[in-house]
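Why do we bother with a discrete structure alphabet at all? Because it lets us treat a fold like text: something you can write down, compare, and reason about line by line. To make this less abstract, here is a complete entry for RusA family crossover junction endodeoxyribonuclease. Read it the way you would read a sentence in a foreign language you are learning: slowly, and without expecting to understand everything at once.
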Amino acid sequence: MAIEFFMAMIPPTITHQEKKVHVVKGRPIFYEPDELKAARQKLTAYLGQYAPAEPYQGGLQLIVKWCFPRGRHLDGEYKITKPDTDNLQKLLKDCMTSVKFWSDDAQVASEIVEKFWAEIPGIYIRVTEL
């Protein structure tokens, strides 16, 4: 079984790697800056519309195409600048876990990620059971 959808939006460019640390009495306290919280809320709200009735069980393949507003670039041209695909994926997969696409993102055994400049910005997602 597979599910696929396109979330028309300007994809967030802040990534999970941008958590902050504050030291209190010699102990690190990690927190999310407001921009990261907003990106997490945005992704979670969009993803919640497509979450399956029951979380997927077993191994999964995840295909994601990040489509950023093209500006002066050609529609469909690969985006070879930041943010890095692995950092984009971390936040997305955390949000997909929170809305119950699966129990644990470790279930994603196959992953294809691409990022483009696009006339219509958004995120294309396909989840397939292996």
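What the structure line is telling us, in plain words: The longest strand covers residues 108-118. Residues 11 and 23 are 31 Å apart (CA to CA).
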